[in-house]
Backbone:
């Protein structure tokens, strides 16, 4: 009876988590028109469902089968999630093709990942070696977050960014390597922009080039005036 109760508890938890994922997908994706479409046609939902099954089997200590289910899910959805990864509900893997989530990754509630995202590790040791997310994290397409870095609650990772260090809460990160370019107030979503060193350097170079062009024009005008005067003197 105890085993049956545990199985039933897990089943209802699985149903609740899946429904929460569906509702979150409908909240975040304007293309989602109804829950049945999301359940049947969203690979991110399918990948998360399979992950919850493989994760439960891994926690029971079953060998091989959890990884086999993960492998089947990868072939079916194009999304690779190690059974050991911890993913809170709700979560949205949007489109999802090419997403890779490593064994020790931890993802908080209401996180939104786009296609091509990699949560990878850098260590070969059996330890925490993958990223750890707070809640409400948004990761753009093609971003790579590498190593046991902490991504703060409400952080936004820009498309194509490569993040190799911790990210503060409610910040926006872009670039390779990723760097913080803005913070925002979660109360009213006001963006508080920060200086961008790369942009500042480019702007200073553009200003220097403009000044050099003006100086060259001034020197050229002086030379032309000098040549004109020399010609008048020779003619006289």
Residues:
């Amino acid at each position: 009876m105890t085993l049956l109760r545990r199985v039933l508890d897990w089943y209802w938890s699985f149903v609740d988590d899946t429904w929460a994922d569906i509702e979150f997908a409908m909240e975040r994706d304007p293309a989602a028109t109804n829950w049945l479409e999301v359940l049947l046609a969203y690979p991110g939902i399918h990948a998360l469902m399979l992950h919850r099954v493989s994760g439960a089997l891994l926690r029971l200590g079953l060998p091989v089968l959890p990884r086999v289910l993960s492998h089947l899910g990868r072939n079916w959805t194009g999304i690779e999630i190690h059974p050991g990864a911890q993913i809170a509900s709700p979560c949205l893997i949007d489109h999802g093709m090419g997403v890779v989530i490593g064994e020790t990754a931890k993802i908080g509630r209401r996180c939104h990942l786009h296609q091509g995202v990699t949560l990878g590790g850098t260590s070969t040791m059996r330890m925490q070696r993958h990223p750890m997310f707070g809640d409400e994290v948004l990761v753009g397409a093609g971003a790579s977050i590498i190593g046991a870095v902490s991504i703060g609650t409400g952080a936004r990772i820009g498309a194509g960014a490569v993040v190799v260090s911790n990210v503060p809460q409610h910040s926006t990160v872009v670039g390779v390597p990723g760097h913080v370019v803005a913070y925002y107030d979660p109360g009213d979503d006001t963006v508080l922009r920060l200086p961008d060193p790369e942009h500042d350097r480019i702007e200073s170079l553009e200003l220097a080039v403009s000044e050099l062009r003006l100086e060259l024009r001034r020197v050229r005008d002086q030379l032309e005036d000098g040549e004109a005067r020399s010609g008048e003197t020779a003619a006289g």
